[in-house]
Amino acid sequence: MMNDLQPGQKLARGVSRYLRSLGYAPLEEFVPARGLRVDVMALGPKGELWVVECKSSRADFQSDSKWEGYLEWCDRFFWAVDLAFPTELLPDGTGLIIADPYDAEIIRMAPEDKLPPARRRKLIQKFAMDSVRRLQALRDPRPGRDGQLLGGAGDGAGDQEQQD
To answer: How far is CA 85 from its chain centroid?
Structure first.
């Protein structure tokens, strides 16, 4: 399984393991809004939301032009990098996590900028819905055609059974 992961995904795995140990519920590759995809969104025990962007190299960091757009979707923003990453490239005023595929550690706590209550509520609901859909897809990867139950109302497949 580890051989199938890209370098950034390996960092996200270690970050997620670490955040779970702190009581957070991490979700990888979360889309808070159209056009944005964060590497890790974590929901904390008090409803706080953290975003962690995983950067596997200097080139990966320098090609990221969307990260500032993530700030309005979290209470705290972190970078996650490995030990070889040149951390002096990372902007001040952001958090820093050092990670590998198995674990991580917060080196610099991100400043807190609390989300407005309406945005928090919307994000937590989306986080929950996305999480449940992913969990359900693991258990039942194909519930039916186009997401509808096979033999459900309106497709005629279950009509004979209902008449018996």
So the answer is: 22
Q: Please list, in sequence order, all residues whose beta carbon lies within 8 angstroms of the beta carbon of residue 35, skipping any fewer than 6 positions away.
A: 66
Q: Which of 81, 97, 1 is nearest to 42 (CA)?
A: 97
pLDDT tens for 74-91 read: 999 999 999 999 999 999
Write the single-letter amino acid at 131: S
This prediction's pTM: 0.83
SS3 readout for the chain = CHHHCCHHHHHHHHHHHHHHHCCCEEEEEECCCCCCCEEEEEECCCCCEEEEEECCCHHHHHCCCCHHHHHHHCCEEEEEECCCCCHHHCCCCCEEEEECCCCEEEEECCCCCCCCHHHHHHHHHHHHHHHHHHHHHHHCCCCCHHHCCCCCCCCCCCHHHHHC
